[in-house]
Every structure is written in C-alpha cells, then in structure tokens.
Amino acid sequence: MESDATAGQTEGVQENQGVLSATGRGGGLVELTPTPGGLALVSPYHTHRVGDPLDLVALAEQVQKADEFIRANATNKLTVIAEQIQYLQEQARKVLEDARRDADLHHVACNIIKKPGNIYYLYKRESGQQYFSIISPKEWGTSCPHDFLGAYKLQHDLSWTPYEDIEKQDAKISIMDTLLSQPMALPPRAEPNFQGLTH
Questions:
Q1: Are 121 and 146 a contacting pair, CB within 8 Å?
Q2: Would you tell me the crossing angle of helices 53-106 and 2-23 to the nearest 10 degrees?
Q3: Contact by Cβ (8 Å): 123, 133
Q4: Residues 6+ apart with CB under 8 A from 111
Q5: What is the mean pLDDT of residues 45-69?
Q6: Collapsing DSSP states into helix, strand and coil, what is residue 167?
Q7: Which end of the chain is less crowded, N or C, counting CB atoms within 10 A of the terminal residue's CB?
Q8: What is the C-alpha to C-alpha distance for residues 148 and 132, in angstroms, rounded to an integer?
C-alpha cells in the first residue's frame, strides 16, 4: 500500500515537472506536498494530477499574457515619466532664459532708482546703448528720440515681466496673495502644553 502511494507521488512529481517545463520560464504549478498543512491526503496523485492536457496550454497562455500586460504597463509608466522629464527640461530652459534676460535688464543704463511695481520702457540710442526710461512711446508721441525696444514691469522679487505678460502675471500674483492671506488652521492653544510633565 505504501509502495502504491510512493508510486503515485513519483508519477505526480514527474507529471508536475512536465508541467513546469511546458509553461516556460517564470510560470508553473505549485510543488507537490504529500502533507499540505500537516494533513496527509488520501491520494496526492489524484489531488495534484492535471486531468486535461489543454489546461497546460491555458496556463502557459495566461503566463504569457501576464508578461505582455506587465511589459505594456511598465511602458506606459515610463512614457509618462519621459513626458514629465521633457516638461521639466523645458521649464528649466525657460527659467534659465528668464534669469539671463532679468540679469541683462538689471544692467541696462538707467538714471533713476528702479522701484518694484513700476513699468519701465527700454530704448536704444544710435550708439547702440540701451537705457530705461519712465516715459512711454505714447507720451513721446512722434518726437520719440530713440528706438523703442519694449516695456517691462519690475516685480517685487526683482524679476522683469514683459509688457504683454503683465496682466497674466498680475492675475497669478493676485491668486497667490489671496491664498497666502487666508487664515490658517491653528490649534486652539498657542502656548506649549506641559501637562503631565510637572507635579
């Protein structure tokens, strides 16, 4: 009787090894255990035996499909990361360009003290020198003596905003000011609580 059980286990192991090889790398069936959970089964051969050969094909297809889904999922996530990297690179490039422009504008000749919040008008002389003025081309009228290059608003962080972007930038700053002025949720007691630490 023991020899029958041993023979049944041997046949089951051989059959299981065939299943492992049939399903390819990374997939397979659970190893045979004569006493799962500490309980001896009546016939491990019958409980672990694969009855239909088509089940092996279905198992192999399932493993292959899982590999394909995992690969597609990883590809999608990497695509999103690549797009984020491109966006950050573009943002970094814009930050550097704005910083270079702001530095150049701060070195432009100006006979007045520049104050944040004001708009300054950039002109160019015949000699090639650029300078800031508080007089706009409209105020000069037809008697504008030099070439007008553009207008910029000096922000409170000492950055420069081109005239055409002032309205949009002011709207952003207004939203930030509104958010920062909101009362923050503070605990009801501001003083430290030493209860339990003193007698």
A1: no
A2: 40
A3: yes
A4: 131
A5: 72
A6: helix
A7: C
A8: 10
Q: What is the mean pLDDT of the chain?
A: 78
**Which tokens is 17 given?**
């090894």
Mean pLDDT score, 18-44: 56
Q: Which residues contact 134 (CB under 8 A, 6 or more apart)?
A: 112, 118, 120, 121
Residue 176: CA atoms inside 13 Å, Cβ hemisphere, count? 6
Instruction: Please tell me the distance from the alpha carbon of residue 56 to that of residue 25, in angstroms, as a whole number.
Output: 14
CB 152 within 8 A of CB 122: yes
Residue 154 burial by Cβ neighbours in a 10 Å radius (0-12, 13-18, 19+):
buried
Task: Give the burial string for 89-126 (b: 16+ CB within 10 Å, else e).
Answer: eeeeeeeeeeeeebeebeebebeeeeeeeeebbbbeee
Written as one letter, the residue type at 195 is Q
Contact present, 119 and 108 (Cβ < 8 Å): no
Count, residues in the chain: 199
Question: Which residue in 43, 56, 36 sits closest to 12, CA to CA?
Answer: 43
Locate 44 and state its tokens: 């491990």
Grouping H, G, I as helix, E, B as strand and the rest as coil, residue 113 is: coil
Whether 32 and 48 have beta carbons less than 8 Å apart is answered as: yes
The DSSP call for residue 34 is S
Residue 153, helix vs strand vs coil: strand
**Contact 149/124 with Cβ under 8 angstroms?**
yes
Q: What three-state secondary structure class fits 65?
A: helix
